[in-house]
Amino acid sequence: MVSDNAAIFTSQEFKYFCPMNGIKQKFIAPGHQATNGLAERNVQTLKDILKLMSTENLPIHLKVQRIFFRYRATPLANGKSPAEMYLKRHIRIKLDAMFPHYEMASEQKIKPRTRIIKEGERVRTKFFVNNKPNWKLGVITQQLGHLHYIVKLDEEREVKRHINQMQKSAIQKEEVISNAPTSNSKPSLSEDYNPDYYEFINPPITQTNRLTTDRDLGDYYQQQRFSPRIRRSARFRRPPAYLQDCDLS
Known about the structure:
Helices cover 33% and strands 16% of the residues.
């Protein structure tokens, strides 16, 4: 380390500090600052920038931090900044926001996912109602990054969902609406027909039961629209062999 003959460099404490940390200290000739010209130039640069920042109402330590940050981000004669030579990467400053975004090396190494959902595809998204999962149908309208999407639900509402909260669906919006039952028609037995329910809604609607009937119909439509259809096996069930001698009628 080359330094001048200031008292802080010639003190006993500093002379003890240098050998303990493997620093070889050298002093310049008194009155010849050109010998230590590089350090003097850096000090002069710091003083000049501090004069230009005199109008800014900031503490001195914040001014010094900003000066050093900009200085380390400034390219040298070899085309690289001190920070880039030390950190092996380019550090971003406010000036970089004025230029177009460049693709970083880490983004180039990202492997494509095995499951990709494109814009315009039908999906069903997961919701939680009373801590229970529920699914709603919608369409992908926008992709945000690699894993997040904007989904427009069939109820004309947009939500943001992760790819793990969605599944592709072949059910179209028209099919969901056309499959909704009406008050004058009874569904087949495969659609979980409830005779007690239809005996309740088939009588003429009066002023006293209009509110209750409309609410029950809305709940039934909502359940039939978003609940999966239960499929039961139609195969013949043979009784166990050990029950052959028993009368099961």
